[in-house]
Amino acid sequence: MTKLISILFLLLTGTGMSAGAQEFTAEQKAAECAKIKEAMQHAWTGYKTYAAGYDVLKPVSKQGVNWYGTSFCMTPVDAFDSFVLMGMKDEAKEAKEMVFSKVSFDVNESVQLFEVSIRLLGGLLSSYDLDGDKRFLSLAEDLGRRLLPAFRSKTGMPWRYVNLKTGAVRDSLSNPAEIGTYILEFGRLTQLTGDSAFYKTAKKAMMAVYNRRSPLDLVGTTIDVNTGKWQNTESQIGARIDSYYEYLYKGWIMFGDPDLLNAWRTSSNAIRTQLMVNTKNGIFLTRVGMFLGKETKPYYGALDAFYAGIVALSGDVFTASKIQQANFYMWTKFGMEPEVFNFRTDSIVYPAYPLRPENIESCFYLYRVTKDPKYLAMGQRMIGDILLKCRTDAGFAELKNITTMELEDYMESFFLAETLKYAYLLFAPETALSLRSFVFNTEAHPLKIN
Ligand code: DMJ
User: Fold this and answer.
1) Closest to 290 measured CA to CA, from 375, 195, 176, 367
2) CA of residue 56 relative to chain centroid, distance
3) Which residue's CA is the nearest one to ligand 1's atom 1?
4) Catalytic annotation on 38?
């Protein structure tokens, strides 16, 4: 009997399963999917009407804006695979036509390696993996080759900017995320083109960060890619570090490289012992000095929320569920999640909400792993808030301030690539996208596992 009770306890708590959450019916799930598809359509109509051919829509002033002198059609590239997964055939066709008629990387532009890689390279590769049109792969390969010169530094860690035509590089002060978030896209390129240079280059860069970890096995926030010296030694899991950790584990799933698993295990143990703070509201991850592990600032925020998802994916469902408890607390405490918040004083540090996906992304992974309907309820609440509070008549706008609800005139392409996609997949049947066959890059572009 005692054994039975412990097994039941383990099933309910050890897997993060809650006792009381109500199951969603198939009709309720379908209704959520329909709501999210309608939002996707609204965002796309706004983009097409006011910003067609530009990178991004400004949904308040109703105009388009480019990141650089030339447009790379950031929004259609980022949105295409979401349209495919949501079965939005007409929109997928429109996005595809826009991409092939407008995008060329043969331009004299200095671009930010990280953003171009996760949004454009990742988007083109997943478009190829889902749709099979070889033109996606040609564009991806062309872009990948133009990005390679960025990695020609003394350490193998990439410069932040590279010129797509000349290969000229600039900005040596970088960070783990902008150095170590390439193995999925570059590795997939190696698989698809047979050129091993892509995988080797990306791996060398991320291992160069790992090899510069402190004796506590932590990395800092800023490093010089030429000297290899840390410039900002604060360790945390959010902005400027997040996806470096994400790619250590996902790189292992995608390529089975034991070096990546080993680096993930070492790093995630250090994060557990040095950064995790157990509170009555769940587990938050704090910020500490990378050498002494002393807390610098008790800050947590929207970006940090991704960590529950990767921890769930790696198999530690109990810890992941406690982090997600904290994530949802952060959301409900303020009615919307702030970009940064002090979890010791329960107060907002930076009040923006730029349409970020991470909290819902973690719900998606936790639901896939546990099937606990409480994650559906969390996701429903969060996407409901977003669709209600950020909608404008031309699309969806970021919030400058979640307490005043003042809007920012910008609709990030990751809203279509990530936020709406993870929300949709949370409620859609698993067959819509199997985690056995695909790994999401950090911009939620699914890449096929070979
Ligand atoms: C996205 O561009 C990516 O998810 C990146 O890794 C972190 N930030 C944004 C979304 O918030």
Assistant:
1) 176
2) 18
3) 443
4) no
Q: Which of 185, 217, 242, 304 is catalytic?
A: 242
Ligand 1 atom index nearest CA of 355: 11
444: CA distance to ligand 1 center in Å? Answer: 9
pLDDT in single tens digits along all 450 residues of the chain = 333 333 333 344 444 456 568 999 999 999 999 999 999 999 999 999 999 999 999 999 999 999 999 999 999 999 999 999 999 999 999 999 999 999 999 999 999 999 999 999 999 999 999 999 999 999 999 999 999 999 999 999 999 999 999 999 999 999 999 999 999 999 999 999 999 999 999 999 999 999 999 999 999 999 999 999 999 999 999 999 999 999 999 999 999 999 999 999 999 999 999 999 999 999 999 999 999 999 999 999 999 999 999 999 999 999 999 999 999 999 999 999 999 999 999 999 999 999 999 999 999 999 999 999 999 999 999 999 999 999 999 999 999 999 999 999 999 999 999 999 999 999 999 999 999 999 999 999 999 999
Ligand 1 atom having least distance to the Cα of 181 = 6
Residue 32 falls in the annotated catalytic set: no
User: Do 130 and 85 contact (CB within 8 A), yes or no?
Assistant: yes
* Whole-number Å distance between alpha carbons of 360 and 142: 33
Cβ of residue 443 lying under 6 Å from some atom of ligand 1: yes
Q: Does the active-site annotation cover 242?
A: yes
Angle at 46 between CA 115 and CA 93, to 5 degrees: 75
Residue nearest atom 2 of ligand 1, based on CA coordinates = 443
One of 32, 81, 246, 339 is an active-site residue; which one?
Answer: 339
Dihedral of the alpha carbons of 195, 208, 143, 239, in degrees to the nearest 10: 140
d(CA 285, CA 29): 32
Q: Residue 294 corresponds to which tokens in the numbers above?
A: 């002393």
